User: What shape does this take?
Amino acid sequence: MKTTEELYNERLNRFRKTLALEKTDRTPVILMNDAFAAGHMGLKLADICGKDCIEASNKVIVDSLKDLGDVDGTNSAYCVGPVFPLTFMSRVKLPGRELADDMLWQIDEAEMMKPEDYDTIINKGWSSFMPGYLKDRLGVNVPEIEKALAYAPQAIKNVKDAGFIVYSPAVAITVNEYLSGGRSMTKFMMDLFRMPDKVEAALEVIQAEVVEGIKKQIKDTKPDVFFLSPARGASEFYSPKLWERFVWKYIKETADAIIDEGVVCDIHIDGNWERDLSYFKDFPKGKIVFETDGMTDIYKIKEVLGSTACIKGDVAAAKLVLSTPDEVYDYASKLVKDMGDGFILSSGCSIPPNAKVENVKAMISAATGK
Assistant: This one.
């Protein structure tokens, strides 16, 4: 029987080869299982969203991984819901606080940033604006979140000590998402027409600070993969001209900065990006992961980017909740066969908290043969 250290090294080797589009013994399986892990381990979501959310959620994620068997790792060592206010600049409703104990966290988007805030950001800087905004307008208890996050390095170690990979211990969003979340998507879109130059000037200020922060994250965590989320940057939301100027520009700059630090950039793709797949051919081979939630046709992704980018996905949330284990197994097995080398089997975005355990195990079996 292999030790946890041997299993970890085997999984890490398989993972790194897949990132480089090299042949491996089998397709790796990485789970986005933070919310799912709670129910799987017999807890409510409120149990992992309290003041000790990082430590509490880390324990159930590790326990869930052990129960599920021969998976390679997890996207995150802890649950992300309670830390969302630090990234999306919106209020977040949490289970056990604003929501029922077993209801999934929700971003409560509203126009909390005002047009005049663009000038403040441009003149004073992002790091000068953001702390006061989080405290005074959103009512976020930043010290409480930071205290919880102090456990993050230990959480990552706990996953590794159990024999599993933490896929992306370092995380950022593209800068347009800060403004989209703070202004609200509707108001932000209107700003792109009414005051595009001012929006761009603010984005440039934020971008410079964010890239420096990313370099520090990489230095501190030494990840194989850096998770970059354009969130709502999909082609289906923007005209080509606006998308190139306000979305793609910052994806490219940020991903290039990550790659320059010697790290693979995972671009978390929510929504349909089929119109603009060819843009991702600009990146060097084996330096990005196109992580799709299923809205972008994975076969089109394979056709356009299969020779240069690792692909991760894309068993849909609905399948994991509503389908039978045989249906999930058949779909995931087809993906494993058709995607070939350079493919990581995963859910399409997060595994929902009400997914059937037998369906998640069926997805895993499609890759492991067990």
The CA atoms of residues 14 and 24 lie 6 Å apart. The two ends are 16 Å apart (CA to CA). The chain has a mean pLDDT of 96.
